[in-house]
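Q: What residues go here?
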């Protein structure tokens, strides 16, 4: 799918600002610095993002969206679902590791950004809906390979939440640990799934 000029510019601004936020943190990154790095005027920057907060939140949304889109592509493939689950785990862990420095800064300074959020309820609502959608999509995909008794007792959404929660745990481990053993973490998640809910 070809991106519009506007989408490409938004991506460019997000990329430049991600580097600045990662290096300087949320507090010490201004819209002026972002405009400078992008080599655009501040009014042009404000045409794309209403505030520094909107830009910062946009970065995390983009990260989540990237995982969701790539996972959806994997789920659309015609191959063994167990293998696809492994690939989704692998993809998530790789993207977390790739953006580790940004995510560490995001967690460290998220409370500052949240205080500046104009509509915190709306932001939280969007995040919760996104999590529910991801869990439901994962559950629907996995239901053919889930133990029938597990599916019957807990339902599709909770099955999806299981994998989602395991990946979220890996996210927190990855950004708080100094050493990340990607393969070992993937192996553990798969073992938990196989011994718990998958046939």
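A:
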């Amino acid at each position: 799918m070809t991106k519009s000029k506007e989408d490409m510019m938004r991506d460019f601004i997000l990329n430049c600002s991600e580097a600045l936020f990662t290096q300087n943190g949320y507090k010490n990154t201004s819209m002026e610095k972002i405009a400078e790095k992008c080599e655009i005027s501040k009014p042009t920057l404000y045409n794309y993002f209403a505030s520094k907060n909107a830009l910062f939140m946009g970065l995390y949304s983009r990260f989540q969206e990237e995982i969701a889109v790539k996972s959806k592509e994997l789920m659309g493939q015609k191959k063994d679902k167990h293998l696809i689950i492994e690939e989704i785990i692998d993809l998530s862990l790789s993207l977390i590791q790739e953006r580790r420095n940004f995510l560490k800064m995001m967690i460290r300074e998220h409370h500052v950004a949240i205080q500046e959020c104009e509509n915190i309820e709306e932001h939280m609502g969007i995040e919760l809906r996104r999590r529910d959608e991801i869990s439901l999509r994962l559950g629907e995909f996995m239901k053919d390979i889930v133990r029938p008794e597990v599916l019957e007792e807990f339902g599709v959404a909770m099955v999806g939440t299981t994998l989602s929660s395991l990946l979220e745990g890996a996210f927190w481990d990855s950004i708080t640990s100094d050493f990340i053993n990607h393969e070992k973490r993937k192996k553990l998640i798969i073992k938990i799934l196989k011994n718990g809910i998958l046939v």
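A: Context that may help when evaluating the design: The first helix runs from residue 5 to 24. The chain has a mean pLDDT of 90.
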